[in-house]
Fold these 2 entries.
Entry 1:
Amino acid sequence: MSLFPLRRQQRHAESHVDGPLIPPRPGTTRGGLVAVTNDTAMRHSAVWACLQLRAGLISSFPLDVFRKVGDLQVEVPKPPVLVEPGGREWDYVDWMAASQVDMDRAGNTIGLITEKNALGLPSRIDLQVIGACSVIQRRGEPVPRYRIDGKEYTRDKVWHERQYVIAGLPVGLSPIAYAAWTLSEGLSIQRFVLDWFGGGGVPKARLKNKEKRVPPREAALIKERWQATVANGDLFVHGSDWEYNMLQAEQMGMEWLEGRRFALSDVSRFFQCPADLIDAAISAPGSITYQSALQRNLQFLIMQLEPAVSRREKNLSKLLPRPRFVKLNTDALLRMDPETRAKVMGERIKWRILTPSEARAKDNLPPLTSEQEAEFVRLFGPPKATPLPAARDAGWPWEQVSPLSVAPYQQHPDLSEVDR
């Protein structure tokens, strides 16, 4: 699935977008740069950190399934395909993490639909190695075909999610393909440093006699004595006529650190991850500071992660019969300190957004018992009943709701027993 540059092969009146996701290249490129593929790119620490951060967060968000009943959003049980999408070996968390890594590094994730339910919807999706997948767009066909390990499949047998799309392409763009120059530079720095300190073509040090010219035979003998002594960590004893210098070692170390620092922040931009969240050094003037981790996480969620979350919700909702849909609960990323959390819970209960029983369930506490409610009444007095116009207008069998009441939608007459 060659994405950049796009190669269109015309053969027998067919137009192909074919080949590996990133075309295979020899071990080195022109100028001695290291070739970049999906696998070699993950040797770069910034690439690994960005992919694991995004995939780890998105796969850890609790998944909920809802159904629209009038103006209400009612939670319903999750079908098996959203519990173990890839069978017993691939539960929801692993499946979501693996597919998100492919989408973030390659722009696409592809799986084979191996089982379907009675409604004809996928009930099992086996993810495939992205490098073994090709997308073929034939002229005159509205939907593409897929080739996986040399075998061709129609669209109804393949699960395909994509991101970073542009008009006219049936596949998403690959960040690694576009970041190849930056990644190749960073990987080449690593290789050069390893070659340097591991015995490259440039001498690592110089042993100089300041008093006389040393003939070749004597120089070879002195070199052997020096290597034998240094290799064992022993002391090398000499007079005042020898001088030992490390050639450019300090300068090379500084250049290596500087190159690495710029590569980390550059790669972070390609993968939509702030550099500070992957522990990359930030030294630019005017860097943004945050008063709390909550504010930082909120900014990351809104600016970088929310588009990916929305795409996944839309795609996973296709596995359900309408009008059911999927939502990923991103509250896990916005965990508050205990004091702030208590205030927010109190306000939500006050404004009838949350019931006390639901708030207690979030702290893994059971609903209030009659004895506990009586104790609250003794301490703080009876709760003041407040009219609820929405309930009255809907014709529900109550006119007033107290703070200790259960959620009114649980007894809505339009809900079936299954949806309750």
Entry 2:
Amino acid sequence: MPIVLLAIESSCDDTAAAVVCDGRVLSNCVANQEMHRQYGGVVPEVASRAHQANIVPVVDLALRQAGIATSDLSAIAFTRGPGLMGSLLVGSSFAKGLALALDVPLLEVNHMQAHVLAHFAEEPHPPFPFLCLTVSGGHTQIIRVTDYHQQEVLGETLDDAAGEAFDKSGKLLGLGYPAGPEIDRLAREGKPVFPFPEPAIEGLNFSYSGIKTSILYFLRARQKENPQFIEENLADLCASIQHSIVGILLKKLRKATRETGIKHVAIAGGVSANSALREGLQELGLKEGLTTYIPRFEYCTDNAAMIGIAGYYQYLRGEFAEHDVAPYAR
């Protein structure tokens, strides 16, 4: 009998559902919440209410696209955390209710582990062990992956994540939310002519609070001299900010490969959609003799296919969740 999973992801502002059969993605559907743009960031209460409105249509769409009936499902996988508590509650409650109605087991999935396992949604798969740089709005980590179920954090951010640095820097430039894609687009038209200091952090950990502060003070000083400084240099500023943020990521990743001797390297998370990071990883691979793995864009941002892939390998081990399982924000 095939193992058919319905997967649900609701950790932040995207409501996502996917169907995975024997580790193969049959459908992967996402409903975005555009209303957060007007607030300059995700509003948790607004996000949770939108999840309530979106989850039934998204699940229905995922099942129809996969050609799967609810009676065919072997289990329900869902994101337990980390994420926004209200958003997680919508997804976990729906998953529990549907699992009870269908009398199938539950699979709780860690959102960050799922980002790493998104690399197994399609070929080529990275062989074990491999390193994965996982970068998003809330997390920045270098992870040693030795098995589907064994992931060790070698380094992580001590304060702000790289994705947050992109968004807050973009806000200083007057860009909308999320600013990361807009900075990426504008950076292609400019050059990294403005240097920003790199934080002196030992080991494989990251810090982005200092670079945000240096960008703030730099812009304030330049605008005192020329109130139109940002408008006149927007592309170069975006290129400089992106160069600094991505440069820190790649420098730490290179250090990790040299320290561990691992030659297979992957990226994951929303910021892995950034063109400079993707190109920089490929260049790093050529210089250091590494084999690199870059996911398709649909598997970079929050999606339910990665939840289904992670859930599939948990199903094989019989790692099912009880119905009193509670979501966790951190």
